[in-house]
Structures are given as structure tokens and as C-alpha cells.
Amino acid sequence: MPQPRLTKTTAGFTLLELLISISILGIMIFILMGVMRLGTKSVESGEKKIAALERTRASWSLIESQLQSASPLTYQVEGETKYYFKGDRGSLEFTTHTSIWEGEIGYSLVSYRLIEGERGKWALWAGESKVGQENKKDIKLLDGLDNLSFDYYYKDPTEETGKWVPEWNDTKSVPIKIRLQVTHSNKTISLIIPIKTGWSLNQSVLEKTGKS
What we know:
Blueprint (H helix, E strand, L loop, with lengths): L14 H54 L5 E4 L2 E4 L1 E3 L3 E9 L3 E14 L5 E9 L6 E9 L1 E8 L8 E3 L11 E8 L2 E8 L10 H4 L4
Antiparallel strand pairs: 1-2, 3-4, 4-5, 5-6, 6-7, 8-9, 8-10, 10-11
């Protein structure tokens, strides 16, 4: 009795069919890995943006808190009494009740300064020390900025309206308010912070305590 002959359908996969199957499987794995990699990058990018926003929000809140609790302390230079306050477009120095690290404890001398970083970007650094001490701590508040500037609102007692000026060198008075402008990713944000008004050298804390 003759034996049945094996046909292509019962002989299993040919080498060409195996190669095609392996190629299709490889393409599917490659696509899947790309999707997973894209998803991971999206998550990481989102987390970085959230962290940057939180850092920016915390930095703005800190700057506002320190300026609003600025203290009218003075110092003596050759018998002349002056305020601990000076500033220009890229830096600001003043005394405050609010410390970056310790909260509302004692008096701190705070300085903000704009420093150029990589790729033409800018960073805002803050330095802090106790009044009368040289030990100073530094911390980077904002980074990757296109630009940042301080402006100071000056109002002459004899005039009805004031004006914004780019520099403050008057050691006998302080500005009514300060404007901080930050440009990042082609977006400019302004923060206007009022300062205690009516400061008088005759009412300074250091003079009341007999210190200089």
C-alpha cells in the first residue's frame, strides 16, 4: 500500500517563513521599546518641570517674605549713620527678620546677586549672614533664566507720583517698593513687593539699643 507523501502544509515552517516571523517580531519589539522609552522621557520631563515650578514658587515666596520683613538697621561709617540697603539691576542687599535657613530668628544681612551661568543663561544666588558676622551661606534660588532685574520705586515727598529707578544708592532712605522681573522661556513675570515705609534713622533699632 503506497505511503502518503508529505506536503508543504505538513512539513513545518520553511527557513524563509522563520526569517519573516523573526523580522516581524524584531520590528514589534523595537517599536514597543521606542514607545516605552518615549513614555519614560515624558514622565521624567514632566517631573523636572514640576520640580522646577515648585522651586520657582518657593524662591519667589522666600524673596517676598524676606523683603516684606526687611528691618531698618543702620551702621556707622566715619560718624555717619547709614541704612543696610543698596541695590542695582543685578544685585540687592538689605537686612531682614526672615532667614533662609532659620525662619524668623534675629537679624540677617541678605544679598541677592545675578550670576551668569552656562549657555548665556543666568542664575539668582542668595547669600546670608548674621549682622556683624562674616560667616556667610550661599544658595542658588533660580537657574536657567534668560534675564532678571531689580527696580526700585522712588517718590519725592514734594511730588504726587513716583518713578522706577534702576539703582538705589541713597543710604538715608529705602524705596517704597521693589520690582523683580524674571524672563524665562521668552516669558516675563513681574513681582512687585512693598517695603516698610516711613523709616527714620532716628528710630533705627541699633540706635535705640546704643549700638553701631
